Amino acid sequence: xxxxxxxxxxxxxxxxxxxxxxxxxxxxxxxxxxxxxxxxxxxxxxxxxxxxxxxxxxxxxxxxxxxxxxxxxxxxxxxxxxxxxxxxxxxxxxxxxxxxxxxxxxxxxxxxxxxxxxxxxxxxxxxxxxxxxxxxxxxxxxxxxxxxxxxxxxxxxxxxxxxxxxxxxxxxxxxxxxxxxxxxxxxxxxxxxxxxxxxxxxxxxxxxx
Amino acid sequence: xxxxxxxxxxxxxxxxxxxxxxxxxxxxxxxxxxxxxxxxxxxxxxxxxxxxxxxxxxxxxxxxxxxxxxxxxxxxxxxxxxxxxxxxxxxxxxxxxxxxxxxxxxxxxxxxxxxxxxxxxxxxxxxxxxxxxxxxxxxxxxxxxxxxxxxxxxxxxxxxxxxxxxxxxxxxxxxxxxxxxxxxxxxxxxxxxxxxxxxxxxxxxxxxx
Amino acid sequence: xxxxxxxxxxxxxxxxxxxxxxxxxxxxxxxxxxxxxxxxxxxxxxxxxxxxxxxxxxxxxxxxxxxxxxxxxxxxxxxxxxxxxxxxxxxxxxxxxxxxxxxxxxxxxxxxxxxxxxxxxxxxxxxxxxxxxxxxxxxxxxxxxxxxxxxxxxxxxxxxxxxxxxxxxxxxxxxxxxxxxxxxxxxxxxxxxxxxxxxxxxxxxxxxx
Amino acid sequence: xxxxxxxxxxxxxxxxxxxxxxxxxxxxxxxxxxxxxxxxxxxxxxxxxxxxxxxxxxxxxxxxxxxxxxxxxxxxxxxxxxxxxxxxxxxxxxxxxxxxxxxxxxxxxxxxxxxxxxxxxxxxxxxxxxxxxxxxxxxxxxxxxxxxxxxxxxxxxxxxxxxxxxxxxxxxxxxxxxxxxxxxxxxxxxxxxxxxxxxxxxxxxxxxx
Lengths: 209, 209, 209, 209
Description:
The structure is a homotetramer. Chain A has nine helices and two strands. Chain A has helices at residues 8-25, 35-40, 43-49, 51-75, 83-108, 113-141, 149-175, 177-182, 185-204, and strands at 5-6, 81-82. The radius of gyration of chain A is 19 Å and the shape is globular. At the A-B interface, β1, α1, α5 and α6 of A face α1, α3, α4 and α9 of B.
């Protein structure tokens, strides 16, 4: 029903639990060697065979950790959880839950275009609902919980960068495969630029992010 | 012992943890493709082969998420956890824990009647204990925690709708298989009607749900 | 170092998380049918083949749930977590973590004596550390947190019953296998007797358990 | 952005969740016997075949439990979570998440040098980030949250011991395999000595650790 308000503490602890379980389940995808493999190969070879799995674990671990940090960052400014925030949050968590599968799919077909594009689709879906939270919450709270209009813009662009880069990576997966796989580096570059632009403004407003 | 009271905070956080683990374990049922499958099929075909699994994930994810929301909704009005609430809650969690198995069973036998009926049985068992919580808590709290008699009725019927629809879906699984699979849509229709009926009454009582 | 005190809130939430994960992992042991099995057998037969797994899930679910309830019950009376409580608690959690394995072992060898005895050993180990917590905490708190000497005795015997019954079940597994498997029913009978004995005393003390 | 502060409660509950999930996932590595194995071997033989797995579970369980205790110990003295603490904490959790894989790898190649060295590498990586937290937090808090300079030194050396021992165990894995496997016992010996040295100083300062 409209106007309904949910327990913020529970929404946050449920989200934290989903983030933490998904991040820990990632390890299940790195298969322990069989006795046969242990006889045929030494430790370095066994680890070499798992390079795609290990890259997958590292990338997805960083992605989940960063979205969890983003979740902490924006939820700090929420006064009450209404139905819309709850819904966006549940969709966000759905794509977090899907990530261990996407990671495993991408890792198995490490050199293929399709699985990588699917992985990018998953990441951009997470990015999309994070973006929705980051534009809706400042609008809802109207500056009363400490989000100034400058901070709101900073949050918006920050969320937008990750979303767009993963969409682009998904598209370029088919056109320029190697470029697509390095595209995520632009997230860090663009975020660094964003921080540079907004730092002064935020300090002059005395807003500590 | 009768009259015993339990730590509400712990009961809620334990429940949240079980909900979140069950919802995240669902992804384990979508099997990552083998190298053999990756060679024989392209990404779209691989995803097509997983349509039952993905539908299973989506449906069960939504189901668990909605019962978690229902749990938040009713627990807001609980002052103390007595033995009866604790027991209903543990039974509810048992059938939440069972859901990843029921989902996998239903997904494997996607076109079969039996596995779908078993899945409906699991969902109606969750619905049943949710219903028990929704009728017992208003009775126990006697309006002192903010549940008016109108709100109590609204909660009761809301919980009843989902329970009855899943029981019916389980029965119709054998009589009208395709109809049974679409029956869950009635939950949303009936809930929309219920909201329409109770909205005015709840507003006139100044009860924000 | 002696005298060190730990964050009670964290110890409890960590314990709750371990209890809830172990209880949810139990479902992984009920294997979803393969396509081959689905073709050869109908739903009832498939479920019949899983009767040991389902019994294992139900029994271990109840056991973990009851020890979690016991944990809530005794921890309510703890003022501070010292090293000794922390240690007993970690040992208790170790045997909770082991339970999904013991359950799977017992379920696979459902009619065998050894696996059942191992399962009983696991349950009695959980019971043992629960017992240690139930005798140490009243001694440590010296009645200051609300544990009267009558209540302390009630807690002690209650914890003792479950421990002894599982030890006996493990021993009788080799002597009277069928009797051993029904022995756990005595836990409920003896607890009911215990409640009868202590109820009046506790009420006369105005101690609501 | 520099100066950003994160929700301490969420960082701690997320960490607790990761610790507890990793510690519980360890059990998945002890494989339940197949029906074939159950027919060919009795319970004792089956358990004997799992001695490496069980040792792996016990060692890794203790390791995770001890680092969780260390996490509780140091986090008690943190006033606010800044970016640096958050980052160290996320790296620490990464290597906690990796541990179920390292444990499985080490257990499968129980008598081999390489897998054991990899396991030691994982443990020393955990130890390294624990060490960074233990030297950074006292520096950041400047004694305001109760860490005296004596206590800071005690924390530093305590974290250093475990880190160095696991590095050494990794190196000796190739030179003196049997010695390397017993080296961890020095952690307990050196910590006992450390406690002896610092006990008086801490008591004279009235610092209860």
